[in-house]
Amino acid sequence: MKLVIVSYYDDNFGDMLIRVCFRQLFSVVLKNLGLPESSYCFEEMHLKAPMEEKTEKLDGADAVFFAGGGLFGLSYLGFAGPMEEILALCDERQIPVVFSSMGVNNMSASPEDTAQLSAILRHSCIRAISVRENRELFLSYAPERQDTIRQVCDPVVWAKYIFDISRAPSGGRPRIGINVVRGGLFEANGYGWKLGEELAYLQQLGEELERRGTDYLFYTNGSFLDNQALKQFSHTCGISPEHLRYVRTSGELVETIASLDAVAAIRMHSSILSYAFGIPAVNLVWNEKIPCFYEAIGCPDRVIAMEDLQGGLLPEALAGQVLEKLSGIMETECEPDPEYLLTLYRFLFDTAGELFGKQGDG
Length: 362
What we know:
15 helices
């Protein structure tokens, strides 16, 4: 069997980890369904691949699995068009499609936008859907699927097992990870912060941790533009090299977060990886997917809404709020809930079993 895995990925290793973790977990599912490795092959396809490449990779495919992420978005990333192309090709070839761990972001959604997403979900090739967040919003796009859309975790929640890395806290002084992102991320998502405000926030965090005698590490999720922001910050504020980490592979990102004792996150997959390793984290909310994740893991109080900034909250005050929240949860039990991890496994096991006529051992 030829199984096509569709995902969106770039130099943000959080997005790349979705594909990596999905593929490895799906391999376990197929093994437990009794399918030997010799009976199938994976073909990976970028969501935004050229049409010619999409056509070539879908030729002879037995099933298509979307690996997850915020692909049902109405943001500047423009996923709806490429997704429509893939589904139209699958309709023509009668290839069953499974949406797994999908995210829904409806920033500034117009009626035309929502109509487009609803049309996508009406394709006859779609056999099963699971979402990692915003299930109620997703159901508003596909009310006819009310009883079949399942809520599951993001594949990266499985990272500890996929990468077989044990948590390795720094020992001695606790080490706080401070996530750095590109200038413009907040603006692109409808918030007023420019790079200058972000850098002031980062500087305040570092200075306050110095005063407290707490170790810290400024790191990125690997994006080139995130790394450029970190370089500018370190040059402007004179940050010592031992407090900097420029992540250059998905494995480095996993290892970096596994080495921390707590995380002040901005990108959501910093929080997801922290959760995977049982590390307490607090996340600034620049996109609605972030509070959805924290609601799903039962920690809705571990986010700080950026809306407060519109009322004049200064970067210094925001840094104080982040550290106050981190201080309050540092000793809290944060081990991931096995039942939450199994939501995705069970969805894939049930769906693949039905598609391929297998029952397996569960």
